[in-house]
Design a protein that fits this description.
Strand content: under 5%
Order of helices and strands: HHHHHHHHHHHHHHHHHHHHH
Helix content: 55-70%
Number of domains: 2
Shape: elongated
Largest sheet: none
Radius of gyration: 24 Å
Bound molecules: iron/sulfur cluster
Number of helices: 21
Number of strands: 0
Length: 383
């Protein structure tokens, strides 16, 4: 069946950022220079072509925008300066919005007022919760667990994690439907099982970052940042009673050095991301959407307010500790609630899934090639 042409697709995609194909003369240099592009996933030119001619369904079924890790080599090579690397970034925003059934992603990516408003609304709700439900403020010494009882905070953590997981997983289900099932392109179960290792490997290492542009330093920074974020997430969501204590542990205690490690990498590398975006020297930082700024800004503010809580607690300043803790939650909770399922952070989920699904597709294609031709297949061969 011929594909339906949707002439509105290009104007819709352009609402999500830079997307310039008008000057492109299809030389193919961008795909040729891309270290991650291959015959089974030929990008960025193919994805741009889908948009240019209005092929909405193939674009939704495509994994290619997630397989690009934005090294910027294609943009540097393009003789027409159409910035294909940034076009892939725009397509990732567009696809994030297509997977999100609530419509919030689309509104946030298309309107700064919506993104800032959503963050502010959750922050205000958090401030109200703290104002209404905080515990007594002991003022002659720091008792953080009296001000914010750890099991109450822990219960709130779990409830929030459950809500976030629901939204994120329901969006992931739509990604799976669009890319792996829609249009009758289902791969056999055996392919999913055989390639499962790639999901764990790519999720844990983000190794494609290193292949992208052959930039080991960029991959290492991203890897360390993810380890810091992951470590902090595990300590807070699974081990909060161990992490949030009024006891002051000796420096060699794992609670302290694990916390210091996570804090240091989060502070250093988010600050570095912001500095690079401000300087605009690297190709990949020439264009910055609001979501590209908010993501590191909120992460850095969360880290800095966490550091403030730690310093004030160790200095023995009760009021400063309680206020810093409240601000910490007012920044951190909106960042998680809004950015993880609906915003920039969703790419941490979609990227390794896309690498896995691409491996599944290739596995399924190999199986089809190796399968012995049946009677029907034999008849279909030319004489
Ligand atoms: S390198 Fe530029 S002009 Fe050539 S196909 Fe890619 S986007 Fe088009
Ligand atoms: S930005 Fe890098 S990884 Fe992405 S399409 Fe261009 S060359 Fe390939």
């Amino acid at each position: 069946m011929p594909e339906k042409i949707d002439p509105t697709l290009i104007s819709e995609v352009r609402k999500y950022g830079h997307f310039d194909v008008d000057a492109c003369y299809a030389c193919g240099s961008c795909a040729a220079v891309c270290a991650l592009s291959k015959d089974s996933a030929l990008f960025p030119r193919k994805s741009m072509r889908h948009v240019q001619v209005g092929l909405r369904e193939p674009l939704l079924a495509s994994l290619d925008p997630w397989l690009c890790y934005y090294c910027g080599d294609c943009s540097k090579t393009c003789p027409r300066q159409t910035e294909p690397g940034e076009s892939m970034m725009t397509l990732r925003r567009f696809l994030t919005a297509q997977y999100d059934w609530t419509g919030l992603s689309a509104r946030m990516y298309q309107s700064p007022a919506w993104e800032l408003g959503a963050l502010a609304a959750v922050g205000a709700f958090m401030a109200l919760l703290i104002a209404l439900f905080h515990g007594p403020m002991v003022m002659d010494r720091v008792e953080l667990n009296t001000f914010a009882p750890v099991m109450t905070v822990h219960f709130f953590d779990w409830a929030m994690a459950a809500v976030l997981s629901f939204f994120l997983l329901s969006n992931v289900a739509r990604m799976i439907w669009n890319t792996m099932f829609r249009g009758g392109s289902a791969a056999p179960l055996q392919s999913y099982i055989e390639e499962a290792w790639s999901l764990a490997w790519n999720g844990a290492t983000q190794i494609r970052f290193r292949e992208c542009g052959k930039n080991t330093a960029r991959w290492a920074k991203h890897f360390l940042l993810v380890t810091g974020y992951g470590l902090m997430f595990v300590m807070i969501v699974l081990f909060l009673p161990w992490f949030q204590t009024d006891a002051i542990h000796p420096i060699w205690h794992p609670q302290r050095w694990l916390g210091y490690y996570a804090t240091a990498v989060l502070a250093v590398f988010t600050a570095e991301i912001l500095w690079s975006r401000m300087k605009k020297e690297e190709q990949i930082h020439r264009y910055s959407d609001l979501s590209d700024w908010l993501f590191p800004i909120l992460l850095l503010l969360t880290t800095l307010t966490g550091i403030a809580v730690h310093i004030f607690r160790y200095a023995g300043w009760p009021l400063a500790t309680y206020y810093a803790y409240a601000v910490h939650l007012i920044v951190c909770v909106p960042m998680l609630v809004i950015e993880v399922p609906f915003g920039k952070w969703a790419h941490l989920t979609y990227r390794p899934l896309a690498a896995y699904f691409q491996a599944v597709r290739e596995n399924a294609a190999r199986r089809r090639e190796q399968a012995p031709a049946g009677p029907q297949g034999a008849e279909a061969q030319p004489a």
